[in-house]
Structure prediction request, 308 residues.
Amino acid sequence: MKQLWFRGVRSSKFRHVYGVPAKREGCYDNIKITKNAHDSHFCSINPKFVAVVTEVAGGGTFLVLPISSTGRLDFNSSRVTGHRGPVLDIKWNPFNDNIIASCSDDCTVKLWHIPDGGLVTHLNDWIIDLHGHKRRVGHIEWHPTAENILVSAGFDHLMIVWDVGSGEAVNVIDCHPDVIFSMSFNRDGSLIATTCKDKKLRVIEPRRGIVLSEGVCHAGTKACKVVFLGNSGRLLSTGFSRYSDRQYAVWSQSDLSAPLCIETIDSSSGVLFPYYDHDTRIVFLAGKVSRSVETLICGQIKSSDLIK
Prediction:
């Protein structure tokens, strides 16, 4: 475990955190996870269910299981099957544990209702079908504080803010010259950070669709990812150096001209996905081809703190 040190901040209580693999009976076995090369979230979890995008010939499906349904999965288990193309991202609604959103190669975003006991048959009847992108939709993010607000990012370089209650687009953000690699809301949803194929990191005010700050992110050509670090005014990005080494960097949201710190992790080829736990202030870095999860500790960061 590594620690992001900030002047005047005490050592974290969680610096000795370590993971223990679950016993076999506590795992989900025999799931044919998608082999799609898209760098997005193929698994999503909430207090009731775990959802996983699965491999299928034609169309796109994902599996939804109650959290307690561990063990070996029946190959013919019920799935969500309504997309006409591969599913590229799935996210649970933070305000309703029975609603999940998915986006797909078929240029749509769909919302699904999952009953409390889980699926008993294949589900192909969505509750909302959102059309607005002209090319496939690669990423979706729910607004953390405003119910029924969802943002999608497509390969048409557009971000669309949706009111899923009415099924209407409330804003279209057109400030990216190339494919968007990731999105992350800050804690109250007033800002959204993005990474893009043009190697730039941006902080955007989503109501007006204007870029408040931008800067060159990682120098490598592979996908970069970004996450807000709570209410600290900082962001953490992952990416690659020009020599293809995996890196993470910490930034001030108000000045993206240069990172506050940047560290090399290893020379593995898998894209790193950052996950921030607001309660423990721990960042987890997981990669597609990695067999381990990196953990970084973030102290109680103030605007005047400097990284050593």
Notes: DSSP finds no helices and 26 strands in the chain. The chain has two domains: 1-17+184-308, 24-174. Residues 5-9, 300-308 have pLDDT under 50 and may be disordered. The CA atoms of residues 230 and 279 lie 9 Å apart.
